[in-house]
Design goal:
Largest sheet of chain B: 2 strands, antiparallel
Order of helices and strands of chain A: EHEHEEEHHEE
Distance between the termini of chain B: 51 Å
Oligomer: heterodimer
Mean pLDDT of chain A: 81
Number of strands of chain A: 7
Radius of gyration of chain B: 21 Å
Distance between the termini of chain A: 14 Å
Number of helices of chain A: 4
Strand content of chain B: under 5%
Radius of gyration of chain A: 13 Å
Number of helices of chain B: 7
Largest interface: A-B, 36 and 38 residues
Shape of chain A: globular
Strand content of chain A: 15-25%
Chain lengths: ~120, ~160
Amino acid sequence: MRFVLPLIVDSDQFAVEILRQIFEGFGLPEARSVDNVEAARELLPDRKFDLLVCEAMLKDGLGADLVRWVRAQANPRLRYIPIVMLTGQVGELGEAKEPNLSQDEIDGFMKPARMMVFE
Amino acid sequence: MKMNESARVVYYRNSLHYLLKSQGDVTREQALAAARSNVEGLADDLLPVLHAEIDKLEALVASAPDSISESFIREVFDRQSIIFNLAGTFGCAGLRHISESLGDLLADMIELDIRRVEPIYVHVRAARMFRPGMPPVLDEAQARLFNHLASVRHFVRSEAKGRS
């Protein structure tokens, strides 16, 4: 599975390192990372990523904004990329506050990222 | 790619889909064990970071003015996010619960334009008790503390809503 390339979008460098170690354990040593929405928008069209893992709250916008941008792209490889969104923010009932996106658009999970998220 | 217009469902297969269907060199259990081992291997490096982030949070709150700005709340958010993630990753359940409560409080404070530092301060003091290496807190005392933090959040919300 060495040619599968994930992109991690998270401004928390420690969260990124934990995700990298999870991917490396799964046999994916080449995960790339950026810390903001704008950098992700620049990088995604130029590289053939197979998976997007995105924090819901980023410094320059919401992860939901990035998901909407990805899903509006013409290139099908980018438009239909699998997306996992991670968030540490939940409401009283344990429902994710962000992103306000449908189940069809993404898979959303509570932080911290655990191995089972990527099964 | 297949499309079902009535259901608006799109099936698009990339290399990840094909690889998930193919045979690998390792079993699922071996892959999970390797990932778990890699993350556990970070503990020596990242547990000191957890202590340092709690120290930074305490110093930040200690220096807070009576009325705090949204940028201050977002600075606390940055610290809280790191503490929450590391505490959850390395099994610090009490600290994870408190940092989660703090995160919900901060989100409410931004949403409802609340500028008081006291509710944050209560959470930061509670976090101190649950640092890694501290003596364990009795279950009953822990439950009372968590209920107290929930009451603080509810009070802050209801006070702000009563004001508007």
